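Colleagues,

Please find the record for the two-part complex below.
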Amino acid sequence: MSERRRPSSAARAATGPAQRRRRGSLDPLEIAVIAWRAVRSNVLRSALTTLGVVIGVAAVVALTAAGSGVNASVTERITSLGSNLLTVSGGGPARGSRVRGAPRDTITLGDVEAIRALDDPRIQGIAPQVQTSLSVKYGGNTSYATVIGTWPDYERVRNAAVADGAFFSEADDTAARRVAVLGHQVAQDLFGGSSRALGQPILLDNLSFDVIGVLPDKGDSGFFNPNSQILVPLSTFVRRLHRSSPTGDPALSSVYVQGANARGLAGLEQDLTTLLAFRHGKTDPNDYDFEIRNQADQLATLNSVTGTLTLFLGSIAGISLLVGGIGIMNIMLVSVTERTREIGVRKALGAKPRDILAQFLLEAIMLSVGGGILGIVAGIGLGRVAGHALDVTPRVVPQSILIAFLFAAVVGIFFGFYPAQRAARLDPVDSLRYE
Amino acid sequence: MNPDVVTLEAVRKAYRLTDQPFWALKGVSFTVPRGEMMALMGPSGSGKTTLMNIIGLLDSPTDGRYRLNGDDVSHLSEFERAVLRNETIGFVFQAFHLLPKLTALENVETPLTYGGYGRRARRLRAMEMLERVGLADKAGSVPSTLSGGQRQRVAVARALATSPALLLADEPTGNLDTRTGNEILELFHDLNAEGATIIIVTHEAEIAEQTSRTVHVRDGLVESDARHRPQRGGATATPTLRRGEGRDRERTA
């Protein structure tokens, strides 16, 4: 005892340094730094662990983007052929015992005239349509086209403004002039360009028509190609090209009625149904020999189909996200076992159970959230590739990004908690001795 | 006013491996006054490790009383023990137990981090401790690039970082050669001379004899408790001779 010197210097600084936070409290940022170092210390393993989440999030983002891209493109195609449309077409009863067959020629010119005679302010335009497929000739060039007879309203009702020349007029129709408006493709086939077609005579069913207008490229929507149409006045069509119906009242394939706005459409649909039922002498809706379809209803049906499809694809992708989460849990459990000694040492140095819990939980969250961020980037890229393959413009849905990201974070917390709790509950004595 | 650092009163510890409890400690009582440097000895299975774990707040006694700095710490929650461990106990392990991915400086900072010290305070204090053990130039080195003696000195610096009341060393020279081991013991002597209270757990008599007191544990009880004149080990001394002397001294004391 005698040789012991007086207390002094560093080791005796029992009061400790002054710059001290609350007793036993550890800045979450400090734990984040510890967790980040652990993530970084094994890059390959962290990358592989997070891959499941990356793929899951990427799949959710890409598939919903592609799905809503398809949805948007279909909607756009439909509305590009006119908006607020009611389509009246002939056909068997909509309901009933008989299977609905091909549309029958039950809608006649008389019906359209009756609709026009209503002079309803809710109607903005009426475009009856009668059509047939014919060969069309110019000089030595021959092509095939769908020849449609219609009213001048068609231009507005069906979004068919000409690119060159002019649409036919009411006077052309009244006089049954032999004038034609060509679809983009027809003009290309016969003349090699739209501007060269104007004023030229073409032969339809061996009758000469003057080309007065050419439609712009409307895009090919598959089964129905607006580019290979030829539009002629309805009366010209009926008198020159049509095999008249036995009654002398020419049959139409369909009538497009454009509403002034979307609100009045349902009421208009009702009134037209009543009118046609009266004209056709039908009282039982099951006997109706015509059908009126509302474009808004069609769009809604279509949207619900593509929406369900998108949700379905997203859910499947979500399952892969869940699998990714299980992958994180698996690696975290291995990691806790592997680092038992480290946990023991940290505890010996004063780490509280919640410090250890937070460290491992943050590690899992960093992996899953990092995977989420990488997944969003990969998903947007993947969506572009898929969109290119499907020929649609992918629409990255912000909600899908948010949901996928939050889901990834929740997956990290959920699947990281159990391993982290295991780590926090390790006995310091046992874990220090662990080899 | 100045309570003893460690006071053990009839401390018992039971492990339930089977239906029958196994009593690793069967009633241990002794006191470690402030500034003492003592050795805790005992063969394997004696309860020496259990005793060290209890003193180091890694474990709690089944019954009996343990007072640390005068406060009863017999029955604390794990959270309270962790806080107290951080503030009052500095561990030095046989296998060093440095965190392999961290630099020497960061290793020394770790207990300060858990103690809630700010970044700057931590760095300053850790550097000061590395200087104290003579390793300021190795601050940026990771443990794998350091020699065994250097690693143990980093571990000592880490143990000192929070200015603990008690330095608890478990076989601190067990993984070192004699010369390096003696350097570590010299460091302990210096720290003790500056006022540090140190308990060295060892099975080597030649280390125990360098302290001023040796407590022998056997079968869960204190077998002997003897104060003696510390025999400062030096590079010149012959190990065999000192071992013989040490044993004599223990018995006579």
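Residues 234-253 of chain B have pLDDT under 50 and may be disordered.

Comments are welcome before we finalize the supplementary table.
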